[in-house]
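ingest -> fold -> write
write: protein_1
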Amino acid sequence: MGTNGTDTDPFFSDSATEIDKTRAADAQNPHVKTHKGDLLREIEGLHKDKSKLEDENKDILEARAGLQSQNRDLQESSESSNIILETISKNGHDKDIIARLRAGDSYQEIADWLVEQVQIENLIDDSPRFRRGLLDVVKRYENEYQDDDGLRRVQTLESNEPRILWTNVSSSHSLIGHLFDLYFTWIHPVHMLFSELDFKYSFRTTSGNNCSIALVNAICAMACHLLENEGARKPKAPAKGHNLPIGNAQEARTLRNGFMTEARKALTRENHKEMASVQAFAVMYLVDFSACKARHALGYLRASVENLSSAVKNQPLEAQQITTWGIHSLNT
């Protein structure tokens, strides 16, 4: 009991005493407040330094992105220059290139145009060595696929018209039919660029209404990607007298390049605006894009898009819609 009649709690009495001692010590030691102020200023300085470092890091990242963009531009410029120089040295296409340079076209624009004109790959794929290798590959594939292709040829009433030889790569109906089956089973449902029925009827009757040499070869080239995958998954025993197995990925690529060469040869300035040529360009885009040749692929897609409006004129409405929507889906 306290002197005024109330109880005194020893705990509170001790706490009050400690607080009073702390206050007294702070009053006697002015350096404590100084240290607190220094710590606050130091913390504030650290925050400023952190903010400054973040800004510098942001500038570094932006500079890095800029350098990467410049590096890509330089690589593309170098690639474009190489394409132009190789074309001039091998093909004598210099007059067109000089005319485009004088007109103000950039190296990249000229290189893209050269890809569309298919000058460079024709030079490479037309070499005697390539042709000999292609003939060996075709022979082995023709021996592999000997079933009936199911594409019964129809004799048209216009018997005086010359029959169209759709491809020079192979005369085997069975091999071509197998490639058609692969394309229309796996590619056509995803990228529908034309009517399968109209195409096959024109192919069987050897009429050029809904079919063309370029389109046939482009379809076969795209189907070779599936042959390539088959070869990679299921390597077969080597054919007699050959080191490579029938249907291996390397031979499928050789066959694909052979069909692509034929497709490019068939596309000329005179027939670029035809419907089957526009469709062929679109399929060739798929071929090169699937082969990781994005630069060449974009050239084909551009040619397809630019000639589409002229090609759909005087075409049946259904054919217009199929091709327009198919190319639109590739270009978006």
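write: protein_2
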Amino acid sequence: MSTASSDKQGMAAYRAPSLFQPHQARKALRDAHEGKIPPLLGLYLGLSSIPTASVPGHDHAAIGYALDAGASLVIPQVDTVEQAQFVVSAAKFGTKSKGTRSAPPFRLIPGLTDMSIDSSKSIHENLNDQAAIIIQIESLEGIENLDAILTAVPDIDAVWLGTLDARVSMNLPGNGGMGGTEQEWVDAVAKYQDALKKHNKPAAGFAIGDPDTMRGMGKGKCFIIFTADVLALAGMAAGLQGARELFALPQKSDSNDGVSNGITKETE
């Protein structure tokens, strides 16, 4: 796939042969990181989350379930090398990839979910190559261990600094996940960025707000979440208030203005 064709087709150039398979998210992340395509843009769905699913934890079954549904992964709270090794193992098929992912016999339906992008590889090798694994670093411990994590687990495709969780874990004000200027925070972010640069790994995360804020938050990221369904739902509050006023029951009145409950009284 050439860069020119990728630009022309957009994300369709990275589409999987089946909607039941992860798209070529690993390649798309790497191409965005190398500047071959613009950053990937995402909508944060708190109500559902495919084609990239934020799994609730490190549970082996939950990781396999999300992958079987055709998703790539965002895995929270990775603090140590051992945790990183476990979650990546759960997401990969075969010992060649240090994988322990289950291969359910009825997961691959002939002609529907068993098509391969690269015919020189098995379907399981193709799926290993397609699904992206994005880990979230959400504590100072994770930041301190990130260099070792990326050294020991090179199959991690991108790293997301969970700013809100990391700041709270460091006993700093959450600031709505917008970061801060404390020296210990500045030093932690610099260490995170140095580890990504050393291992040539893409960054991921939020870029939400006005254009200048979005531009600043999105700098250097190849996978950017720029809005969320919960924000849109919160914005519906004004509409809800208007509907309540529109359909409110008529107010009772004790005045002698000749009107009660919206019905005109007859004058005797």
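write: annotation protein_2
Residues 1-6 have pLDDT under 50 and may be disordered.
The first strand starts at residue 40 and ends at 44.
pipeline exit 0
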